[in-house]
């Protein structure tokens, strides 16, 4: 395939960026989207030009690093996949593909298509942990009875990889789906009850401090999430938050 790429180039968060056009040929349908970008960068390097900077790590849909806005959609036109799992057979010969970084105040551009998502780390650090007795009197977690429905829902929430697609999809750049998933995976389990009140208050406070917007209730976050994290987690977050505030 031959493709026309319109790629956002930006030196750093303070610099003015712009869209730059690139023509690329020899793209195979079985290539992943990132492999296509690898081919482009190889061509740019061979010509003495600066390659396009983009984030990636595992390339297996696990790490959440490969977050790109492709033709206006986080992770591109496919569903339940990350950018590294998106294959070029989703596009046609001669297509024009617009590639941008995730847009959010809390995700400042590092360079080109790479953004700083350490705001997610700080939300997690604010309360995403449980107390564990390491004094020698530890209790085997498998000995604590947990209802299967709660265990399943906790696992589904824990599937969040923190890629930021929910933020990029939201017109308010809300991190409610991410934060609610991180709260839910503990709120549903007995091990998470010790810090339950402080957890939700601290994580929501940190989310607001990072500059994320409010939930829009449009559901775009769930649709674009590569792991299908449910909006039910946002409802649970709200319940946990209101309950925690009533406790004082």
Low-pLDDT windows of residues: none
Query: What integer is the average pLDDT?
Result: 95
Shape: elongated
Question: How many domains would you count in the coordinates?
Answer: 2
Q: Radius of gyration over alpha carbons? A: 20 Å
Query: What would you call the structural class?
Result: alpha+beta
Relative helix content: 25-40%
CATH superfamily of the largest domain: Alpha-helical ferredoxin
Instruction: Output the helix-strand order.
Output: EEHEEEEEHHHHHHH
The profile of the biggest β sheet is: 5 strands, mixed
Strand order of the largest sheet: 2-1-5-3-4
Architecture overview:
This protein has 248 residues and is an alpha+beta fold. The chain folds into 2 domains: 3-41 and 48-111, Beta-grasp domain (Ubiquitin-like (UB roll), Roll), CATH 3.10.20.30; 117-132 and 144-247, Orthogonal Bundle (Fumarate Reductase Iron-sulfur Protein, Chain B, domain 2), CATH 1.10.1060.10. Helices cover 35% and strands 11% of the residues. The strands form 2 sheets. It has a 5-stranded mixed β-sheet. A hairpin with an 8-residue loop joins strand 1 and strand 2 (18-24). Helix 5 (176-187) crosses helix 8. The protein is elongated. The N and C termini lie far apart (61 Å).
């Amino acid at each position: 395939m031959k493709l026309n790429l319109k790629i956002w180039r930006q030196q750093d968060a303070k610099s003015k960026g712009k869209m730059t056009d690139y023509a690329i040929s020899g793209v195979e349908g079985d290539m992943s989207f990132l492999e296509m970008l690898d081919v482009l960068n190889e061509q740019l390097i061979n010509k003495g030009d600066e390659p396009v900077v983009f984030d990636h790590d595992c390339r297996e849909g696990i790490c959440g690093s490969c977050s790109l806005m492709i033709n206006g959609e986080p992770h591109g036109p496919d569903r339940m996949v990350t950018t590294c799992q998106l294959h070029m057979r989703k596009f046609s010969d001669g297509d024009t593909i617009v590639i941008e970084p995730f847009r959010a105040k809390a995700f400042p551009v590092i360079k080109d298509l790479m953004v700083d998502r350490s705001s997610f780390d700080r939300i997690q650090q604010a309360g995403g942990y449980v107390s564990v007795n390491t004094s020698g009197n530890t209790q085997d977690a498998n000995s604590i009875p947990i209802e299967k429905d709660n265990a399943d829902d906790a696992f589904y929430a824990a599937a969040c990889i923190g890629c930021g697609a929910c933020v990029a999809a939201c017109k308010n750049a809300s991190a409610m789906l991410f934060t609610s998933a991180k709260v839910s995976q503990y709120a549903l389990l007995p091990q998470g009850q010790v810090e339950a009140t402080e957890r939700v208050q601290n994580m929501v406070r940190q989310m607001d401090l990072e500059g994320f917007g409010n939930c829009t209730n449009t559901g775009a976050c769930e649709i674009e999430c590569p792991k299908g994290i449910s909006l039910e987690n946002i409802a649970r977050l709200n319940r946990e938050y209101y309950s925690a505030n009533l406790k004082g």
